[in-house]
Design goal:
Blueprint lengths: L8 E7 L10 H24 L4 E6 L8 H9 L17 E5 L10 H8 L1 E9 L1 H14 L3 E5 L3 E2 L3 H15 L2 E3 L13
Parallel strand pairs: 1-2, 1-4, 2-3, 4-5, 4-6, 5-7
Helix pairs in contact: 4-5
Length: about 190
């Protein structure tokens, strides 16, 4: 069996950003998503440059026969492709399909992070008061360090986003920072 590298590494998790925005509350989410796309794109680029794993965790939108490439293609063919194109997965990106709010709920995310030696996750994406919040809680329960860049998460309801960020910080020990405060040190190659 392949042994994981020593725990403590860092990974960037991009939550639900491969999206067609044709769901309930999308009209409230799109403006917030539009504000974070450049910030998320910068985070993804900096993580890639530092060889930090980038993992896309995304809903399958009920398309149970789809794989990640089809989900990306569907989103890029949709009316809000400009929100997907700047942050689309590259060939080195990892992809976990999820069906519920948390990136961990009945997915291989825990095992993947263990295999990568990850002990610290940076969570970005949408929706702060839903999937990001529940994923932060599940990461905390798994003894992972959690960082959430407040300018790289999108919300439907700003007042709930503020409460969610405060709960992540107070109850889960998450670091709530700006994206520019996140340092992606190069991974070791020894």
């Amino acid at each position: 069996m392949h042994r994981p590298v020593e725990q403590g590494g860092l990974a960037l998790i991009v939550i639900d950003m491969i999206n067609t925005y044709d769901h309930e509350d999308a009209e409230l989410l799109v403006p917030s998503a539009g504000r974070i796309v450049p910030v998320v794109a910068d985070l993804v680029g900096r993580a890639r440059d530092a060889d930090v794993p980038v993992v896309y965790a995304n809903d399958n939108f009920g398309l149970w026969r789809s794989h990640h490439g089809e989900l990306v293609d569907t989103a890029l063919a949709g009316p809000h492709a400009e929100l997907v194109e700047p942050i689309r997965p590259d060939d080195d990106s990892l992809f976990v399909v999820k069906a519920r709010h948390s990136i961990f709920y009945e997915t291989p995310m825990s095992y993947l992070l263990w295999q990568l030696g990850v002990g610290h996750v940076v969570l970005c994406g949408q929706v702060t008061e839903q999937c990001v919040l529940y994923s932060a809680l599940d990461a905390h329960i798994r003894h992972l360090e959690v960082t959430v860049p407040r300018d790289a998460v999108a919300c439907i309801h700003p007042h709930l986003e503020a409460a969610a960020l405060e709960m992540m910080e107070r109850n889960m020990g998450a670091r709530i920072v700006t994206a520019k405060e996140i340092d992606f040190p190069p991974t070791r190659t020894d």
